[in-house]
């Protein structure tokens, strides 16, 4: 009697069905995990927008990269994605004049954004002012912005424009990550000392709960994996964007 349960199925058939069900469930979980994982190597150019009005629809999440025009922004994006030709690099600072979007998935719900460089670009003042207006509009109004990566040459950290960007982000309670780029230009000890000094400044300003910092070198690959882990966390749907966090507080 005990060998015939479950509407006439034998124990051996039930065991076989159970094994099959577990196999299918395991495959489905692996498939879902693969789909949900973020692969920066899959990054593809999506669109270039001259202003907020031409940006992609505000769905999903995105992380923006900002920095002075000589901070190595495009090189960092190319190293992160493993594609040396994804973001344009130039020996002439200030070549990036548009808001450039790169998608990380087929639905374009996860994006990296290369913002126009600021502060150092050798361009006419009127053009520079236009860039800065579009940059400010994007940062203040873009609802899908999950976090801001500010790139700074490790030899010249926390310059005027860097501080301006940092102050805005802190006021908006947005997560910020500082990349001290070109760390290969200094000896390891000297680079570490500058990192410690920047972290000390963040603690003294009482913003270290919102702002993190690391060493980075696009040439040597220093800090790439650390940056990937952070960006995956920011791009996760479990983390609210700055806009969503403000709405939660208002409620």
Structure summary, number of beta strands: 9
What's the overall geometry?
globular
Largest sheet: 7 strands, mixed
Assigned CATH class of the largest domain: Alpha Beta
> What is the CA-CA span between the terminal residues?
61 Å
For the record, what is the CATH homologous superfamily label of the largest domain? P-loop containing nucleotide triphosphate hydrolases
Low-confidence stretches: 1-7, 27-35
Order of strands, main sheet, comes to 3-5-6-4-7-8-9
Average pLDDT over all residues:
81
User: What is the CATH-assigned architecture of the largest domain?
Assistant: 3-Layer(aba) Sandwich
The percent of residues in helical segments reads 40-55%
Q: How does the helix and strand content classify structurally?
A: alpha/beta
Q: Radius of gyration from the CA trace?
A: 23 Å
Query: What is the number of domains?
Result: 2
- Number of alpha- plus pi-helical segments: 7
What share of the residues does DSSP label as strand, in percent? 15-25%
Description:
With about 250 residues, the protein is α/β, with parallel strands linked by helices. It folds into two domains: about 5-30; about 40-250, P-loop containing nucleotide triphosphate hydrolases (Rossmann fold, 3-Layer(aba) Sandwich). It has seven helices and nine strands; from the N terminus they run ββαββαββαβαβαβαα. The protein has helices at about 10-35, 75-80, 125-140, 160-170, 190-205, 225-235, 240-250, and strands at about 5, 10, 45-50, 60-65, 100-105, 110-115, 145-155, 175-180, 210-215. The chain has a seven-stranded mixed beta sheet with strand order 3-5-6-4-7-8-9, sandwiched between helices. It has a two-stranded antiparallel sheet with strand order 1-2. About 35% of the residues are buried.
């Amino acid at each position: 009697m005990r060998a015939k349960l479950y509407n006439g199925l034998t124990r051996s058939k039930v065991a076989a069905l159970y094994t099959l069900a577990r196999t299918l469930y395991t495959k489905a979980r692996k498939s879902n995990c693969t789909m949900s994982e973020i692969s920066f190597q899959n990054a593809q150019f999506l669109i270039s927008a001259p202003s907020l009005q031409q940006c992609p629809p505000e769905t999903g999440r995105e992380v923006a990269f900002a920095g002075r025009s000589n901070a190595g922004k495009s090189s960092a994006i190319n190293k992160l994605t493993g594609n040396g030709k994804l973001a344009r690099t130039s020996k002439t600072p200030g070549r990036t004049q548009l808001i450039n979007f790169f998608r990380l998935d087929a639905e374009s719900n996860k994006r990296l954004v290369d913002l126009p460089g600021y502060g150092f670009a050798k361009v006419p003042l009127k053009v520079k002012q236009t860039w800065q207006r579009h940059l400010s509009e994007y940062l203040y109004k873009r609802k899908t912005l999950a976090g801001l990566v500010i790139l700074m040459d490790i030899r010249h950290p926390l310059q005027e424009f860097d501080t301006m960007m940092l102050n805005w982000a802190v006021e908006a309670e947005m997560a910020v990550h500082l990349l001290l780029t070109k760390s290969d230009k200094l000896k390891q000890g000297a680079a570490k000392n500058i990192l410690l000094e920047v972290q000390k400044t963040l603690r003294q300003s009482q913003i270290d709960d919102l702002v993190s910092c690391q060493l980075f070198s696009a040439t040597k690959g220093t800090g790439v994996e650390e940056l990937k882990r952070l960006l995956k966390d920011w791009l996760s749907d479990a983390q609210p964007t700055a806009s969503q966090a403000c709405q939660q507080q208002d409620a």
